[in-house]
What does this fold into?
Amino acid sequence: MARRARGTRTRESNTTGVVASPYIQRVLPYFDVLDEEQIVKLESQVDWIFEDVGIAFRDDPVALDLWRKEGAQIEGDIVRAPADWVRSLCAKAPKQFTQLARNPERSVTIGGTNQVFAPIYGAPFVRDLEGGRRYGDMAAFHDLVKLTYMHPNLHHGGFVTCEPCDVPVSKRHLDMLFAHMTLSDKPHLGAITEMSRAQDSVDMAEIVFGKDVMDAHCVIMGNVNTNSPLLVDKVVTEAARVYSTRGQGMVVVPFILSGAMGPVSTAASVAQAMAEAMMVCAYVQLLKPGAPFILGNFLSSMSLKSGAPTFGMPEPVISNYAIGQLARRVGLPLRCGGSLTASKIEDAQAAYESADSMHSTMMAGANFVLHSAGWLEGGLCTGYEKLIMDADRLGSYQKVLSQGLDVSDDAMARDAYGEVEAGGHFLGCAHTMRNYQTAFYEPQLSDSENVESWEEVGSKDMRTRANERVNHMLDTYVEPPIDPSIRDALAAYVAKRKEELPDAWY
Amino acid sequence: MARRARGTRTRESNTTGVVASPYIQRVLPYFDVLDEEQIVKLESQVDWIFEDVGIAFRDDPVALDLWRKEGAQIEGDIVRAPADWVRSLCAKAPKQFTQLARNPERSVTIGGTNQVFAPIYGAPFVRDLEGGRRYGDMAAFHDLVKLTYMHPNLHHGGFVTCEPCDVPVSKRHLDMLFAHMTLSDKPHLGAITEMSRAQDSVDMAEIVFGKDVMDAHCVIMGNVNTNSPLLVDKVVTEAARVYSTRGQGMVVVPFILSGAMGPVSTAASVAQAMAEAMMVCAYVQLLKPGAPFILGNFLSSMSLKSGAPTFGMPEPVISNYAIGQLARRVGLPLRCGGSLTASKIEDAQAAYESADSMHSTMMAGANFVLHSAGWLEGGLCTGYEKLIMDADRLGSYQKVLSQGLDVSDDAMARDAYGEVEAGGHFLGCAHTMRNYQTAFYEPQLSDSENVESWEEVGSKDMRTRANERVNHMLDTYVEPPIDPSIRDALAAYVAKRKEELPDAWY
It folds into this structure.
């Protein structure tokens, strides 16, 4: 069922031929949906959770000891703390920071008015038109890293674009890191599932960037979920001790299916998500003041038929807008939303849900958008075609955000009205000739021809066209250049650690 | 190729079983993307068009005479007028007005914070999974009126849901009006292609509502395009003389493909659209001060490959947001956007484009959204399945707009945190049990089940599910009750006019 193997050419020249859009520097205003009364209500709920409800830091005495030492109120493993204190700790995190990429042209600034798109994270399955649905493996992982590297609208590589299930869990993070570090030169995340794996990630990043650069800059980040409701386990706190203590980034994301891991109300779930992520941010700032931190939110609604999570629905849409506003008030970079769907295939449902989810994510000002391309099945499956379909659409959002509405004198086109009469047309006028080549964004996968032209070339639907594009991309992939000594050092690190580690499959 | 004929049952009781969502009364704030400088630039361009460029009122001496008599500057057929005067005339139009429906429960208020969704208008072709693509006919028209009537998220019937090409052009408006007036009890539009057809529409509406009601209320509207650029032909001015003089509504819509009917820049096209529509509004207010008027905008981008119009792209998205803000400043109800796409079928392209187009339409505050469901092929084709797929998604927008984020005490769910421990779940707690049934909107056509459950019921994509729903709806359609004497009078009017009119096919 696997895709056919493809030879990987290594390029000799110094340019890769991959043109990346820069990350988005937004000029468009934000869409603030909350009024003062709503803000007060939500923020006082957040503060009430800090002070009265508390958040458990479980199975990690080291974390609990730090909280105790710093003066938090501990009861069992529940940590409660004055809201002012938690907020003042969060204020120590940078409002924006830059994650360096191996290729400096692909470094991204996260926070403020900047918005960065990364692909799906964490799916155990993959799907494409030829191979159908199957477990992810290292071959698929390589394909997905290459596609992400090649697509101009993805600014960041993410990390687990699929789970490579053919490699032991205890070792796969090494192969995944090696793939990101050699098959792509975009920035990426590291492992978090166990403290030693987080350490491997940081150590391998140090091989790529060198100790001095890493001491001074964020070059890798860990992305972790809290165990909602109101629970932070040691995966989170241990990853923070590795990444944050080293000055690297942490993305902390409460995943709340409203009605299960949070109250069935959107407002309460939003407040809970803020409280959980901010409490971890405060912990991170206790570890290392000024460590880069991204406040995450992943809120899903529920199908009443089955209790299954639903995506692209009005509740997560409004929560995206709301949390954008709340995050800006706290001054923390935000991760939320994505191109999310519960659909199993690349059909209209997938696209409707992904578009509504992503439109609100974009307008909400999310600074780091994991899952911005490739999602199927509520995140259980990475679609090759879906990845490219979503990524193509991201170019549209990029233009809306970074250009807004141009009202320069040239954009007002007054000279054109001197040339064109009432009832005439602007097709050949000087203003059009000057501007038409940059006037419109057209995704490569949209077919806007008339029905006859479309039928002539085979009446292909979007996923068929996406499949052709995927194959073309993989066939023309060229590895970006890398210093051979760095590549060798990475390979040696991976080999050594694989020797040391047992094969563990869970 | 036509669908199988279906018997139309007439119901006897007084309830129709069709539950319509009320039109949207928005609580969500607007998304204002323009700053003061942009607004000044755009509005001064609009004023410059009024005063210096002018707009042609062609082939209609009656319209030109009125402008001349009222003091506009006429040169050939170009009308120029002081901007203050045009704006003061526009200010005479109501900021919002109610269009009565035959069933009072379905009357809609258009303008202000109200938003009303209507289906596609004007497609010569139809498509469904069984019949494929074919010319529209009266049977298809009946089907589409029924589906629109039955779908709770469509508040308004529109008018030309497809062109019934099997009826002569000279007579088809009569059959279309009769269908809207008897197969549905939602509000609808009338004909505009010729003055006598507009008159038939108004006369038939008077049969339904009676002269007194019609004298005091808007019960029907005409929707017309200007001939961009900068040209208003007699179709527009004659329709205005029929509808507006009778106190009925006019929707006036510049259709601008940027680079063809307007400059290739979005800002200039937006300003031109404002100027064209406002100039017609001014004309309408000269005819009858206070006549209901909807300022329309239909802006499309262009494929560089072929010059074909493209939809759901960043340029129309930003234009939707911008024109929403400009229309609110002028104080006129706005028609813009819709669920637009250039795709030929109900695939992911159709859904991505429709969703981005509609998301921005919705957030922009469009008060009357024609084309909110059913579009394919840039408006050349009405999809049966697409109509229902889009309409299902409209429920999500409806919830976002009309509910915003509920932060009531119950929504904050503090009692739930007394029941649920850290790491627990909210599935059975009292707050969830109180609220879960109304907590989430779930479109009927979204499948959020896991892949195994989805495969068990046939691995159906969204359009297959939509096709089943369409067939179920048409099979269970029941005609809404109507006073038999009104029905007879309408039938007699249609019969008499068909006698009088020649058969003309173009």
